[in-house]
Amino acid sequence: MTSPQIQNMDDLATTIEQLFAARDLTALTEVLAPLPATDLVPLFERLSRKQRAVIYRLLPKDSAAEVFELLDPPLQSDLLHGLQDSEVAQLFVDLDHDDRLWLLDEVPAALATRLLRGLPEHERVLTSALLGYPQDSIGRRMSLEYVSTRAAFTVEETMRRVRERLQDAETVYTIPVLDDSRHVVGIVSLRDLLSAEGDISVAELMKDARTAEAASDAEEAARRCADLKLLAMPIVDRENRLVGMLTIDDAIRILEHEESEDAARQGGTEPLRRPYLSTPVSTLVRSRVVWLLVLAVGATLTVQVLSVFEATIEQVTVLALFVPLLIGTGGNTGNQAATTVTRALALGDVKSRDFMRVLTRELRTGGLLGLLLGTIGFTIASIAYSVEIGLVIGLTLLCVCTLAAAVGGCMPLIARAVKVDPAVFSNPFISTFVDASGLIIYFLIARAILGL
Questions:
Q1: Best exposed site among 166, 176, 294, 325 by fewest CB in 10 Å?
Q2: By percentage, how much of the chain surpasses pLDDT 90?
Q3: How far apart are CA 166 and CA 160, in angstroms?
Q4: What is the pTM of this model?
Q5: DSSP letter, residue 241
């Protein structure tokens, strides 16, 4: 068989499925044994739930544990349902306590309770401590296994603490400096410790610490950690006492999760929370049908507008030819503005209080876009039909683009102000609103210019 290092993943998946269908477990074991966990994870994402459960049992013990830890929480949940209770309990124990929280968010409540009961006392205390924080807070994603030091300690004393915790601490590269009441007074890096003399005090090396409060939003804290390019960030309570550490890998994981949700909702679907090929068709349908029903109801506004101006269309039938162009251009303009501002919100570039500044900028942007497109529309329509029709199309594009940009730019800000996910005010909703309002503008301008 071709070496796994050079074999195409599609060919490997096909081979696995063929061996699975033939019930050739011996050959399956031989194929899977040499594969590293990093190659097995994308393979698991392509298989069905039943195939994953069977193939997982064929993996060597060490490889199986590593694969489980690398899988997305929804796939971990699927796998737990196909394993025996003893295997499930051990896999859950082997996870880091902050990774357990991702999994507990995916499994049914009854299974979550059973998994928690099966933990050793120390691990159950750590996991339960994280569960006490709000659902979307950074407290649920921080690590409780870290190394700390005191300002009065020497470099040698701190390095001794690092070596003692080297096996169980999640990060040792960034070390918070505490006072006697566990308040964070600074931060020291492992690099600085290694380059300093052993009798130098930590107070001489430490720098100001950038922290986040445990109850704060997970996405905001993760974004701050990534923007500051920190390997780890201390998480504190309201009195600035250290309660955990957010590592950069966990911060990136949070941001990837949030951005996947935003991208899905901006497209008018619910996030799948798992790889596409491992998602059941029924789940795909459920993720889309609600939004489609809502948008279908919203689209009736467009139909109502067309019925109101039916007499106008009958008098100048050429107007109907430009309806797709106008509503399509308006929808696209609004979508572009919404996507840009939603992204700016996620990055912290704008806040809800910047409403008027965003509105002004989008009015100007939409106006310039409308002027450019309107000029082109006026020229083409004038040549093809008449100057009057060209004037109608040009002015409508100017107005529609200006309106669409303003609406698209402001809706995410309004959503954030009323504590709603900006992605909920997604592109399809903006398109529906702009379609109806754009048609009203179109026919009112046509009536005025054509004297209908």
A1: 166
A2: 34
A3: 10
A4: 0.68
A5: B
